[in-house]
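Me: I keep going back and forth on a fold encoding question. No explanation is needed for now; the record alone will do.

Assistant:
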Amino acid sequence: MTRLTRETGETRIQLDVRRTGGDIDVVTDEPFLTHMVVTLARYAGLGLTLEATGDLRHHLVEDVGITLGLALAREVPAEAERYGWASVPMDDALVRASLDLGGRPWFEGRLPSRLYEHFLQSLTVNLGATLHVVVDRGRDRHHVVEAAVKATGLALRQALREGEAVFSTKGSVRLEWGEDS
């Protein structure tokens, strides 16, 4: 389990996340954000406790994405399956998500909500992942955004599974940080 508190002059976020599942309890100042974080956690198979408050909707949504991405980065096993993809139909919406947990941050996708597009970008970049979201169709904004979050969650569930070996031709990456004198 990873526990993280992130506090700025604009937001305060506390979360506990567990890759292997468990209860989901999310409380934010923004009902749709709460709904999307619960949805992401459920579809990704995560255990998650999150409390978040903020001064503005944009700051809250962005900072929750940042904090969740930072915490999830610590939950990626060395021998993760690494890749995940899913396609989710939700009424009029059909959305695909493809994810790579290989440590190369990149987000590509267009949603009918810049705010939730930014949420997925903040999550992805801070997770150190590559995420491509493709909206094949959809008229209802809520359905498109929710289908994107569900597809991302399912892709994340698949990518986080523990595999049998490091899934890279270059092997594992070892970083060694030095201290300034």
